[in-house]
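This part of the workshop introduces the protein records we will be handling. A record pairs a protein's sequence with a compact description of its fold. As an example, a complete record with its sequence and its C-alpha cells follows.

_____
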Amino acid sequence: MNFLSHYYFDRHSVNCYHILGTVLPDLLKNADKTIILHPEKLHHHKDTVNALIAGWQKHLDVDRHFHSSGFFLTHSRKLKEVLRPVIEGSPVKPFFLGHIAIELILDNLLVTTNKITVDDFYKHLGSCDEEVINEFLTFSGLQNTDVFLTFFEAFKKHRYLETYVDASQVAYALKRICMRVWHHPFTPEQEARLTGVIMTYRLQIHDTFMEIFDEIDSKLKKQA
C-alpha cells in the first residue's frame, strides 16, 4: 500500500512517531533504494523510538495482508491487462504498473471520499523531532542518516501527496515512480492514455474499494 493507505489505519492516533513509522519503510526506499533495515524486532529505552518501531511493524503487517488479499491480486491483474496495450513499446513491466496503479488509486479514493485528510498526515510528520528520527535510524543500523533526513525535509516541504485529490494526477504519480527505474518510461501519448484508463478504473471500484480496508482492519484486530 502507498503512504495515505497506510495512514488510514492509524488516522486516529495522536502519536506522530507511530504515524511516521507506518510510512517509514517506503520513505526510506524512496530516499535510497539501497537502504535495508530490519528494526521491527528491536527494543529501545525511549518511548518515542519504540513508537517508530511499532509503526514500522504495523506497516509490515498491513502490506502482508494487502499483498495476499484477493482484492490486490484481482485488481492488480486486471489493471495489468488493461494497461498492457496502453504502454506497448514502453520499458515498464505491465505487472509492476498494475501493482503500483491500484495502490495509487486507493490513495486517491481515500482522499476524495474524505476518509482521511492529507493535511493531518503532514502535520503528524512535521511534529516529529529530527533528533528522534536520527536516533531511530542509527539504532536500526543506518550509518549515514543525512541522505534520508534531507529527503524527508523535501518530502514534507513539497507535499506532493496533496495532488492525489485530482484523479488525473495519479497517472503523473505513476510516471514519477517509474522514473526511478526507467529514465523515460512513457511517451506523452501513453501518459494521456494512462490517465484515461486510471480514471475509468477508479470509477469502477469507487463504491466497493473500502472493502479491502475493512478486511485488513479486521485481520489487524484479530492479531492484536
